[in-house]
């Protein structure tokens, strides 16, 4: 169903059976980060974070729950109400964030290797993302002393002005597909404004958030300003979303979970919530397009990051005059994509994040076939055999191109979050 037949399948099978490359990094931090210190969970529980290539355990990470969220929020509240961070000049906060960016740059290779190991994304992609995070932190640092109020015209002998102040304790819940950019988007602006933060990373990818947060404290962040609580959504995430002493919440993840987060925030202290949820973005190819260029752009728009991207161009619409040509060339490009170990040079695509996501993608593909879609880049009987070739790559998906005409299928409407390109015809 997913893997091409013949020689390409054989080569893929060989790659999947190879011994995984040992990541050039060690796991240093696996505890909760509360009040500037690494501590065990109150319950003493841990959970396993797994290598997506093999399903083997990378590390046992402290499992935070509601009690740990309470401890973290209390530390953040004290740091905000009594600590120096909100009372520093904006220039002083800026200097801390700039020092942090410098440390990110110095540890770029280490952080990137840990990110690739924990998430399954190609190491070369992780290198680019960490450099982006460094730039993001410098960008946010630059905003620290440029947050200005307004003077407002008023009738009569009055003077009116607005003053922007930090909102207080900011909660952040981030997903597993881009752990570090999401970290920067949640933590950077909040710290630049003078807020304190409680962050819950995804349970699939908690390791880099702990590592870079340690660097942030090395840069001079006062105790309690940033707290990191790895754990599960229904426990740690729900506790953070419903906490009465959290003043603002930012969440990135699925639409379904976003509804739950918003409901919990509403039913608690009506804290404002920023949601960045799933998507099903169209990629439209008109009849006068350069087909070869369009194929390459559409390919990148969908298959980038194993298709695990909320802004993926996951609905490809192609004009009927060039539809057949586009489908054939899209199929050929997909078949050439290099799928394998994220640490192997030249790998374009690594494994899906875990078996749960892997099986979800398979269900969508099955649904599409049953609804009348045509599989263009694989044989129907090859998926099961390929999946069981080797425990070293149990979650490795070969990219798939699907050719169909009806846009009422689930694969055309739902966010698949995987390397499945759906191509629809329009007039």
Automatic annotation (TrEMBL):
Subunit: Homotetramer.
Keyword Transmembrane annotated: no
Keyword Nuclease: no
Keyword annotations from UniProtKB, A to Z: NAD, Oxidoreductase
Gene3D superfamilies: Aldehyde Dehydrogenase, Chain A, domain 1, Aldehyde Dehydrogenase, Chain A, domain 2
Enzymatic reactions: an aldehyde + NAD(+) + H2O = a carboxylate + NADH + 2 H(+)
Domain Aldehyde dehydrogenase stretches: 38-427
Protein name: aldehyde dehydrogenase (NAD(+))
Gene Ontology MF, one: aldehyde dehydrogenase (NAD+) activity
The enzyme's E.C. designation: 1.2.1.3
Annotated organism of origin: Quercus suber (Cork oak)
Family assignment from sequence similarity: Belongs to the aldehyde dehydrogenase family.
